[in-house]
Amino acid sequence: MATRTLKSRLWYPWATKQRRRRTRVAYLFMAPSLIVLGVFMFYPLVRAGWLSLTNYSFFGASRFIGLSNYGHLVHDPQFWRDLVNTLYYAGVVTPVSVALALGLALLLNRKGLPGRGLFRAAIFLPAVVSFAVSAIVFRFMFTPSIGFLTYWLGQIGIHVPDWLDSVSLAMPAVILVGIWKNVGFYMVIFIAGLQTIPKELYEAASIDGATRWRRFSNVTVPLLSNTTMFVTVIALIASLQAFDQIYVMTQGGPAFSTETLVMLIYRQGFTNFQMGYASAIAYVLMAIVLMLSLLQLKFFSKRVVRY
Amino acid sequence: MATTLSDLDPPASTARRSGFPTRRRSGEASRFGTAWAVTMASVAALVIVLPLVWMVATSFKPEGAIITAHPSFVSAQFTWSNYSGAWSAIDMPRLLLNSTIFAGGVTLCSLTFDSLTAYALARLDFPGKNVIFVLILITLMLPFQVNLIPLFVELTNFHWINTYQGLILPRATNAFGIFFLRQFFLSIPAELEDAARVDGAGDLRIYRSVMLRLATPAVLTLALFHFMYNWNDLLWPLIISSNSSMYTLASGLALFTGQHVIQYGLVMAGSTLAIAPMVIAFLLIQRRFVESIATSGIR
Predict the structure, then answer these.
(1) CA B80 from centroid of its chain's CA atoms
(2) Residue of A nearest to B231 (CA)
């Protein structure tokens, strides 16, 4: 491409005028998007970085305080508690959803399974339902006076306290919603991945006398590793940003046991109006997510497995 | 832009990738294996659907049958009163209208702006192209929460809090949409474009009658993705609207549940109404839903 531009510049001087026109047309096409991205994406992004260096509080004057917010953050037990909560949430939701999704995909990719489409549709259904509504339903389900869950568990002799009121059980309840909401979505990505594996490989393995388990571990697992990597990273990124169901189910409680980093940003920024400090937390979250995204990009630019 | 029925079918290659092929072959799996698989699949499907079924069942129970020492899954008493109650107490018409304007507005703006930009990036040669493309790829990786605070401050200065433009315009373009359509436009053969140019078509004509027409399936998939994402979104409308007349379904129901002495039946009826459009659309056009979610993967 570079040589072509150079050539045209050397040999066809009259082409410059046309090129200028082309450039103008191109930028006119992109103008609406570029304006929106500039005003509502890049400017706020820089502004967030600037705010994180000030003690801005929405009301009243703000002052440049250097890296104080970040210094404060390192010693803030709230930040570490919420980081641990976020990692707890992500550390359970990600592997469990990925494993369940893979299992369901293998199950529902079987040839000749009656009602396969129906099963897939049912398992995928939560993906089209909002987190807010899902959380409302689960919150009511866990409410002892109306929900059938605690009642049924009580009937078979397992007496649990109000999940959402318990410091140890509120997080598992929130985690359950996170898994329930996304497992079908990840399953569909796995099914798409499974369908790209050539059938000949399984046939060849069978001829060689490979057992079902050997076929799974030596054909399916390596050939599915790209898909697994992709699903794991998007599941991890999504769970690091958990907010909706926590906001609806527990508001971060009881005793902050379910407060995640995004909940902390929300509370510090929009309840306490410590917007400078909240911006610093947001920048830390961005750094974590960006690192994971770059990792994913690296994995996908040079494929993990080549055949 | 003429849309024929065949345009609505995705190209064969994407149809293969979608989650629900209807093709079925008599299996090599043993009868016992199949029975076991059906049992497992039934249990999984039931467990997953159970909460939603309970929601719908509860929305038809009178309040007395909901709050009880022995909660039952379905009640013998049946009532529509929760729906009429939700209609007035939660102001469902307003929430439905706001969600439709918000999700619909974002979808229309974003599809227009994204496709224009995607056309320039895929089909035109100009200085700065790579820089712009890389910038768009970077925004794809950012968690949107990082912009939440400065955006709130910015929209406050614009006096755009509690307005539709405040809800819609910051989302009027979408990096993923640009990226997705650019990939599609790149795959369209140059001969079609050249033929149109020979006929004297300008870039705007080529964009409209060649690119957009051929990309209709991709555009529809993207439209569904944008609409569903914003219809379901909570955090953004929660922050941009503080006035109950501007609440969307997600934020309105979440706040109603959080603030009031809960009338469970009403909330369940409201929740059922909130998810009904998406669930019905999903059941009607499963394939496009699965595609729009699976091809994106990024939310």
Answers:
(1) 29
(2) A130
A112-135 as b/e, with b when 16 or more CB fall inside 10 Å?
A: ebeebeebbbbbbbbbbbbbbbbb
Q: Is residue B14 part of a domain?
A: no
Q: Residue A135's closest chain B neighbor by CA?
A: B254
CA distance linking residue A71 with residue A171, whole number of Å: 29
Q: How far apart are CA B55 and CA B43, in angstroms?
A: 19
Quote the tokens at residue B25: 């072959």
Q: Residue A166 has what pLDDT?
A: 86
Q: A300 in contact with B at a CB cutoff of 8 Å?
A: no
Rounded Cα–Cα distance for residues B240 and A253 (Å): 24
A139 touches A164 (CB < 8 A): yes
Q: How confident is the model at residue B293 (pLDDT cuts 50, 70, 90)?
A: low
| Spans of all domains in chain A | 77-301
Residue B100 located in a structural domain: yes
Q: Which of A8, A28, A129, A133 to mutate to test the interface with B (most CBs of B within 10 A)?
A: A133
For chain A, say whether B167 makes contact (Cβ under 8 Å).
Answer: no
Q: What is the DSSP letter of B265?
A: H
Write down the pLDDT at residue B246.
92
Structural domains counted in chain B: 1
| Residue A12 clears pLDDT 70, i.e. is over it | no
| pLDDT surpassing 50 at residue B185 | yes
Average pLDDT, chain A: 87
* CATH number, domain containing residue B169: 1.10.3720.10
Give the position of tokens 């907010």: A243
Instruction: Look up residue B210 and give its two tokens.
Output: 């060649």
What domain range is B239 assigned to? 86-294
Does the pLDDT value for residue A5 go beyond 80?
no
What is the torsion angle, in degrees rounded to the nearest 10, for the CA atoms of residue B161, residue B110, residue A269 and residue A174? Answer: 120
What residue type is assigned to position A84 of the chain? V
The contacts of residue A67 (CB under 8 Å, 6+ apart) are A53
User: Is A146's Cβ below 8 Å from some Cβ in B?
Assistant: yes
Which of these ranges, A226-240, B48-62, B283-297, has the smallest mean pLDDT?
B283-297
pLDDT for the residue A6 = 52
In a domain, B209, yes or no: yes
pLDDT at B25: 42
Q: Find, among B232, B245, B254, B263, the residue nearest to B161 by Cα.
A: B245
Residue B25 within a domain:
no
Rounded distance between C-alpha atoms, residue B34 and residue A112, angstroms: 8
What is the rounded CA–CA span in Å between residue B31 and residue B53?
Answer: 31
Nearest alpha-carbon partner for A182 in A293, A106, A99, A246: A99
Position A201 pLDDT exceeds 70? yes
- The fold of A77-301 is MetI-like fold (1.10.3720)
How big is chain A by its Cα radius of gyration, in Å?
26
Question: Residue B112 — very low, low, confident or very high, per pLDDT cuts 50/70/90?
Answer: very high
Contact residues, chain A, for B20 at CB < 8 Å = 117, 120-121
